[in-house]
Amino acid sequence: MNHRPPFQKKPLQDHQINENILFPNIFLVGTDNEKIGKIATKEAIELAKSKGLDLVLISIKEVKTKDNQIQKVPIAKILDYGKFRYDIKKKKKEEKEKQSFTNNREIRVSFNINFQDILVKSKKAREFILDGDRVKIALRFRGREITRVDQGRKTLDIFYDQLKYIAKKSKEISQNGNFLVMHLERDRKKLPKFISAKQLKELLEYEKQKKEEEENV
């Protein structure tokens, strides 16, 4: 005995396009964002197809008429629907990645910090960055140290050198009062979003090898 699978509805499209647009008339926007105006939906579809494109319902705008009635105006645009969906998906992905940063961390260093302490503090910064956090490195000037900003920048550059294989500067180094500030975040081009302990160990070994190669140049 054959058992037919349960009927499943075909998933709806994200947008009304071409013959699926339910409105008999629409306000048409052209490929270069020019406002063509009110037109029959059927005519607009033919115009879009003549260009090898699609007619896509973008939004429904509510406008008030002269007699204070609310009228719904469907707005449609001629475009490449495949590219349109791709651009929306790409934008959502970028927004999601921006929101994936869970915390803003801060690490303070002194103007006279030695290299060993830089290694210790950069290790902590690495942990934050691998967790997806943004990290602000704040170098503090005391007294006449404020006149040696260039030296402070060099110190922050050395700090960044310990992290450059996994991080990027989200902002240029800037001075804020008695502080010189550097903002770092995970560089997704250098490091994937998810990384195993084994991969991290390999990465750290790679960092060490790269540093040794640079020192021998």
TrEMBL record:
Signal peptide: none annotated. Belongs to the IF-3 family. Monomer. Its main location: cytoplasm. It holds the Pfam family IF3_N. One of its GO terms (molecular function) is ribosome binding. Coiled coil: none annotated. Residues 103-185 form the Translation initiation factor 3 C-terminal domain. IF-3 binds to the 30S ribosomal subunit and shifts the equilibrium between 70S ribosomes and their 50S and 30S subunits in favor of the free subunits, thus enhancing the availability of 30S subunits on which protein synthesis initiation begins. Gene3D superfamilies: Translation initiation factor 3 (IF-3), C-terminal domain, Translation initiation factor 3 (IF-3), N-terminal domain. The keyword Protein biosynthesis applies. Keywords: Initiation factor, Protein biosynthesis. InterPro entries: T_IF-3_C_sf (IPR036788), T_IF-3_N_sf (IPR036787), Translation_initiation_fac3_CS (IPR019813), Translation_initiation_fac_3 (IPR001288), Translation_initiation_fac_3_C (IPR019815), Translation_initiation_fac_3_N (IPR019814). Residues 17-94 form the Translation initiation factor 3 N-terminal domain. It is found in: Cytoplasm. The keyword Disulfide bond does not apply. This is Translation initiation factor IF-3. It comes from Mesomycoplasma hyopneumoniae (strain J / ATCC 25934 / NCTC 10110) (Mycoplasma hyopneumoniae). GO terms for biological process: ribosome disassembly. GO terms for cellular component: cytosol; membrane.
